[in-house]
Amino acid sequence: MKKNILVAFFSFCFFGSFAQWEKAPKLSEGSFRSIDATQGARVWAGGSANTILTSTDNGKSWSKMNVGAAYKLDFRGIAALDEMKVVAVSAGLAEEGSAKIFLSEDGGKSWKMTFDSNEKGVFMDGVKFFNAKEGIVYGDPIDGRMFILKTVDGGRTWSRIGEKMPDLKEGEASFAASNSNIFVLDNTVWIATQDRIFRSKNRGTDWEVFSTFFPSGTTAGIFGMHFSSQSDGVILGGDYVNDKGKFPNIAFTQNGGKTWHKTQEIEPFGLKEAAWKIGIDQVLVIGTTGTSIAHLDSGKYEVLDSESFHALSCNSKYCFAIGGKGNLARMKIGD
User: Full-prediction pTM beyond 0.90?
Assistant: First the structure.
């Protein structure tokens, strides 16, 4: 089921006050929309054509594997539970055989399908874990309410929850863009639709919902978010069809998502999909039009490059970004 290819990174370079992306040799021409670098030196990335990438040495070398080869899968959600265990979620319609969840407990040597649905309309968008046991998968609405699954045994089994979730508006849904429209911190989970933020402070039992000023449309709205505390967070977005257009693409909250402060659009203008706080006052932002740093102390933005990425994840030493046509890179942020 899996094919391994080991590769090494090119040399590292610096620009200005921040390091630039250090690009990896291409392992795949696929589209990648999920990455998780939060468990030590292990990094996982999920992509189209059944492809999953992993590194055990903070990106010095990588392995490529094919998971669920009997199906046509696009792993737009991935979550590392520890350095050996990982959950991969395939986006796509259940009635077409694409709504599946896989678990590996041996570093990707073997995979087990732990959820499969053929229910019409089921389309899973992303996954996050509170800890090594409890995690949440969310997806497109079923009967006017967001599709939510929860596991309490590390992804071995999944149960439908969300009975107390507020109803969605007509046409409201989330984008399966970068596994960034869901975020967890301690016992809290936030999930973004095009223009609203759903929040549960007790791991998915009770929910409340907050509005934003982002436009709501079939191609425009919120595409990602990141919280550095229970109060402080950022949302990103734009329009994926007109991904270079000047639309609202960043906003900040200081009250856990209840209200959002509108700022000028972050440059390069266009679609932004993920962010990560990498210093006391710096937020790294990526999207299809380039990489930027938001300086929270001054309120200014610093453009780093025009590299196109969809997904972002960081640990204490490196940030990793991945996108279309297998574009994969890392950036050093710590010793």
Answer: yes
